[in-house]
TrEMBL record:
PANTHER family linked: 2-C-METHYL-D-ERYTHRITOL 4-PHOSPHATE CYTIDYLYLTRANSFERASE, CHLOROPLASTIC
Record site feature (Transition state stabilizer), residues: R13, K20
Protein name: 2-C-methyl-D-erythritol 4-phosphate cytidylyltransferase
EC number per UniProt: 2.7.7.60
Family affiliation: Belongs to the IspD/TarI cytidylyltransferase family. IspD subfamily.
InterPro entries on file: IspD, IspD/TarI, IspD/TarI_cytidylyltransf_bact, ISPD_synthase_CS, Nucleotide-diphossugar_trans
Gene3D superfamilies: Spore Coat Polysaccharide Biosynthesis Protein SpsA, Chain A
Role of this protein: Catalyzes the formation of 4-diphosphocytidyl-2-C-methyl-D-erythritol from CTP and 2-C-methyl-D-erythritol 4-phosphate (MEP).
The keyword Ubl conjugation belongs to this UniProt entry's keyword annotation: no
Keyword Acetylation appears in the UniProt entry: no
GO molecular function: 2-C-methyl-D-erythritol 4-phosphate cytidylyltransferase activity
Natural source organism: Corynebacterium halotolerans YIM 70093 = DSM 44683
Keywords: Isoprene biosynthesis, Nucleotidyltransferase, Transferase
Marked site positions, Positions MEP for the nucleophilic attack: R158, K217
Gene: ispD
Amino acid sequence: MIALVAAAGRGTRLGARVPKAFVTLRDRSLVERSALAMVNSAVVDEIIVLVSPDMAAFAADLLRTRGVLDNGEVPVRLVHGGGERADSVWAGLQAITDDDAVVLIHDAARALTPPGMIARVAHAVLAGAPAAVPVLPVADTIKEVDDARQTVVGTPDRSRLRAVQTPQGFDLARLRRANEAYFAAADPGFTATDDASLMEWHGVPVTCVQGDPMAFKVTTPIDMMLARTITDEAEPTIFEVPSD
């Protein structure tokens, strides 16, 4: 099983001086924490960290100095990502030589993801699901809004809505075919903001597994404040959601 850790974005909403994946959360950067979570999940055989070309040398030095590249358990290598998330993931998929692999795709910004949740996603794909995503119920009422008029046009049934997290797991061959079709299409009709949406577009069923509140995405300064508060806790694993 191969994990791709997407760390090529700029993350401008966080307002940091460096790309978001390299912002330090207590003693480690977000990308370090995400990569080590993959190691600790005990289901990953290789990790590919996707970084922008201009950050590649810095990332290599950081991950080597911090013992991530040479962690003694799982091989880690860096691959240049692209301008958009879908471009980065596609570059990572093309760097995988094992056509029969199962792949996990994870956002470096979800740096506190528990290893147990990673394993749940992996096991769902190993059990036969072509695609699997971790999900949580939506707490807020969601409104569909007309952007031009700034008026509400609908209220979806909240009981049918889920917030989707990462890592997302896939059969590599089917994910590659979906990517090939997406990038070959003159107008795919949507922008792939996550890999599961691309699989849905390609007609592949996506299985849901239990997510975890700790797998929240660090996007804004408030998210970072929450993450720093949690990492001060003596036992942050109290947030782990038991599997069914």
